[in-house]
């Protein structure tokens, strides 16, 4: 017998029975619930349901609790839109496959360190994000393949920098049963603007996380509950003419800095 599975199933049943008794769930309500779960399965929305019920982020927290020692960068959920084998980009790193003139330019930079302060050269940084409208390239046929996705290495001092655009917030899919649930319980479907990262270096624990744009209107009410204070990214507007000339930009842009900290494996 799988004792762990038995214990989990027993505990889950106890909690379900408690809810049934507290809210006096009827047979008709049970039928509606089962029909809803069937629709979720047929539409492939179980991962989305896990997200909006904040189960995904709770499991991420439990899974990586032992790895996070209070010094290393906090983890976060990978999300459903990650693509493996994103292009390897050379320096200077530019995530946009084409110039996105409608979106605001953003430079993100920083360093990768060990928890004891050692700069980690040749750390692999895997980045993916939405554009200014909140659209990922694998959901938007107007964007080029692997747009706003890429992998690159830090330099000999663990430094990195890449040019991208300020991502926009977006609503998770509302056309299926999970969207119907959110509407029925009067919850919004918005996710605050964010950038996803996978950070890996030999001999260290890899980190999957996301950085959220400070000041975003939805940063305090993320529909999947994934925002962590330590993962807020502050944007600074730059209008300096000399800096524009150095970077070859003829309009305002934004910069932001964030250092990643890895624990030894």
TrEMBL record:
Named cofactor requirement(s): Fe(3+)
Protein name, entry field: 6-chlorohydroxyquinol-1,2-dioxygenase
PROSITE patterns: INTRADIOL_DIOXYGENAS
Swiss-Prot/TrEMBL keywords: Dioxygenase, Iron, Metal-binding, Oxidoreductase
Ranges of residues in domain Intradiol ring-cleavage dioxygenases: 108-136
Pfam families associated with the record: Dioxygenase_C, Dioxygenase_N
Superkingdom to which the source organism belongs: Bacteria
